[in-house]
Design goal:
306 residues, alpha/beta, 7-stranded mixed beta sheet, 6-stranded antiparallel beta sheet, 25% helix
């Protein structure tokens, strides 16, 4: 089948590779090179890098405007496949390919429509995550669904780990749907149930509230790691929390109270403390949390969140 693919981050690459092995992918649409790292070096997106490796022409477009639409439709695709491209597909591009566009979305729709489904699901403490492949329509993530599948993840998986697992499983799911569209066997059904929404996360979404029990505190840590990053304040300074886990056997601490072991820093919640093992203080590099705490001159009486 003659396909055009649209995607940007690493989570889209497994689907691109899988489809390129089975179909004629005539173009890869992705966001333009972006400045990365401390030196802000312009770097192609993961999808652009994979497409070049696969010998697929790249169309770099910040949005799917008239120029991008013309370039894509000139490739005469039979189907468009989109995975986390980062922009909206509108008419006339939406109905340009004979079979329209399908979208791999990392939730079991209609749950978590929007830009951050994995992160929002983890923050909410959802016990099951998954992926859906649906027919793209003008309304956000509202099209009929060809296939959905739940994925079992480790209980402590952070957003990046969950997304990596879903990306691999979603590539298989998308390949099955594309094969069904190609042979005419695929059938999509309307979404049922009340939708929930997953807007993009902001920096403030990473703030941990120590007045809550451990479960929602750890759920938020998982959902915002690595981006936008879990953080708190200690002694009026922002502290990014990079690695943490429930301290199941630790003695209770008051919310925000800080204790320490040889290998971690314990921070109290409304129930069990959170054991923090790696942190990044403002203006410094990542370090072992216990080493950071030992370096605090006025550690006595310091609390998280203050």
């Amino acid at each position: 089948m003659r396909l055009v693919f649209a995607g940007t981050p690493a989570a889209a690459v497994p689907t691109l590779r899988r489809l390129a092995a089975e179909h004629d992918v005539v173009g890869a649409v992705t966001r333009p090179d972006a400045p990365l790292g401390r030196k802000r070096v312009l770097t192609p997106s993961p999808v652009a890098q994979a497409a070049v490796e696969l010998g697929i022409p790249v169309i770099a477009a910040a949005r799917l405007d008239a120029e991008a639409t013309e370039r894509i439709l000139a490739l005469e695709p039979e189907l468009g496949v989109i995975v986390a491209y980062g922009g909206l597909v509108r008419e006339p591009l939406l109905s340009g390919p004979r079979e329209g566009w399908i979208n791999l979305h990392f939730s079991i729709l209609p749950a978590w429509r929007g830009a951050a489904p994995v992160q929002r699901a983890l923050i909410a403490g959802d016990p099951v995550l998954g992926s859906s492949v649906f027919q793209l329509v003008a309304e956000l993530d509202a099209g009929d669904v060809f296939a959905s599948r739940a994925v079992t993840l480790p209980a402590a998986a952070t957003a990046d780990e969950a997304l990596a697992a879903l990306a691999e499983d979603g590539a298989e799911l998308t390949a099955q749907v594309v094969a069904g569209i190609a042979d005419g066997s695929a059938r999509a059904i309307p979404q049922t149930g009340e939708p929930t929404f997953a807007p993009k996360l902001a920096l403030e979404d990473g703030a941990l509230d120590w007045s809550l029990p451990l479960e929602p505190v750890f759920a938020r840590f998982r959902g915002v790691t690595p981006e936008p990053g879990a953080h708190t304040t200690v002694g009026g300074m922002r502290l990014k929390i990079l690695e943490a886990a429930p301290a199941a056997d630790a003695a209770p601490l008051a919310p925000g109270e800080i204790g320490a072991t040889k290998t971690s820093v314990l921070i109290g919640t409304a129930s069990t403390p959170l054991a923090v093992t790696r942190v990044q203080p403002a203006g410094k590099g990542a370090m072992n949390a216990a080493d950071w705490w030992r370096g605090q001159r006025d550690a006595e009486g310091m609390r998280a969140g203050s």
